[in-house]
Amino acid sequence: MADNERKRRSIKKILHQLTADEAYEVATHLDPVEGLDSSELNRDDEESCVQYIAANMNNWHYDTDIQKLLRGLEEVQNKLQHGVTTPSSDTPQPHSSQP
Q1: Where is this region: Disordered (predicted)?
Q2: Which one, 43, 52, 63, 75, has the greatest CB density within 10 A?
Q3: Residues 6+ positions from 7 with CB-CB distance below 8 Å
């Protein structure tokens, strides 16, 4: 039980580091939450997405649920820890020097 609580706290720390887009991606790939509609989530609304993820976490009863989210967050966490960003349309992209 203590191990599960540590995992939950670790996940919550990660959630607060997510961008709105990352939180949306995680939230929309989780199981439905009673009383909430994931189709109403907005990619630009980080707070609602994080709340949806937290509500989903509150419904977990088994270690497999935590493992499922940890696998889903693993890639996002790696990006955060290694400073990997996705290119945006506002960021100039390097030009290829092919003839």
Answers
A1: 79-99
A2: 52
A3: 66, 70
pTM of this structure: 0.57
**pLDDT higher than 90, residue 42:** yes
**pLDDT (tens digit, 9 = 90+) per residue, 58-78?**
776 655 666 666 766 776 667
The closest alpha carbon to 55, from 43, 42, 65, belongs to: 65
Let me know if 27 is exposed, middle or buried by CB neighbors in 10 A (0-12, 13-18, 19+).
buried
| 9 and 28 Cβ atoms separated by less than 8 Å | no
Copy the structure tokens of residue 71.
């696998």
- Residues with Cβ < 8 Å from 20, sequence gap 6 or more? 43, 44, 45, 46, 49
C-alpha R_g of the chain: 16
Alpha-carbon span 81 to 28, nearest angstrom = 23
DSSP for 1-23, written as a single string: -HHHHHHHHHHHHHHTT--HHHH
